[in-house]
């Protein structure tokens, strides 16, 4: 395994752990302020502030001026993230962290199979094949085992 693959693997494992922690933290925030949607708003606000500062600190602030040059469809990512944050913080108290995270990963796997197959948004194309479907199915089995 080359260094770039190793770093990406470790980075994504750490990011996955952070996503798992994000949902119960945001759920607790929602209980604390009495509003799940308010908690999602605060979560996104904090994230936005940190990313805005980081963008300017690394000298890429001028890139924000080019936002009008990209297709409007590409701006939907923030909306998709907002749905995820709200869904996760709302679901954790009902399903638990493991089931919520498992369902999130299962949904990601299904969508990823299709997006890879299509080469959507400029991603490299990877055909749907039995092994990739089996990987998603095993995550689905994990969802079942985590809950029932």
Q: How are the elements arranged and paired?
A:
Layout: H1 3-33, H2 36-57, H3 76-95, H4 97-118, H5 130-147
Write up what this structure looks like.
The protein has helices at residues 3-33, 36-57, 76-95, 97-118, 130-147. Helix 1 packs across helix 4 (97-118), helix 2 crosses helix 3 (76-95) and helix 4 (97-118) packs antiparallel against helix 5 (130-147). It has two domains: 1-94, no CATH class; 96-148, no CATH class. The longest helix has 31 residues, at 3-33. The protein has 148 residues and is mostly helical. Helix content is 76%, strand content 0%. The model has no long low-confidence stretch (mean pLDDT 94).
Round the Cα radius of gyration to an integer and report it: 18 Å
* Strand fraction: under 5%
Span from first to last CA?
Answer: 37 Å
Poorly predicted sequence stretches spanning 5 or more consecutive residues = none
Strand count, sense and barrel status of the largest sheet are: none
> Secondary-structure element sequence?
HHHHH
Q: So what's the overall shape?
A: globular
> How many individual β-strands?
0
Structure classification? mainly alpha
Integer average pLDDT: 94
Total domain units: 2
What's the helical proportion of residues? over 70%
Q: How many separate helices?
A: 5
């Amino acid at each position: 395994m080359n260094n770039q693959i190793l770093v990406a693997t470790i980075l994504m494992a750490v990011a996955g752990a952070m996503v798992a922690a994000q949902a119960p933290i945001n759920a607790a925030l929602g209980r604390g302020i009495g509003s799940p949607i308010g908690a999602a708003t605060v979560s996104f606000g904090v994230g936005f502030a940190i990313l805005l500062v980081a963008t300017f600190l690394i000298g890429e602030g001028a890139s924000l001026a080019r936002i009008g040059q990209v297709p409007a469809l590409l701006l939907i990512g923030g909306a998709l993230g907002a749905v995820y944050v709200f869904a996760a913080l709302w679901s954790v108290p009902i399903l638990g962290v493991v089931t919520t995270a498992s369902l999130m990963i299962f949904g990601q796997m299904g969508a990823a199979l299709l997006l890879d197959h299509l080469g959507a948004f400029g991603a490299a194309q990877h055909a749907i094949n039995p092994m990739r479907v089996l990987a998603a199915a095993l995550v689905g089995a994990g969802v079942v085992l985590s809950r029932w």
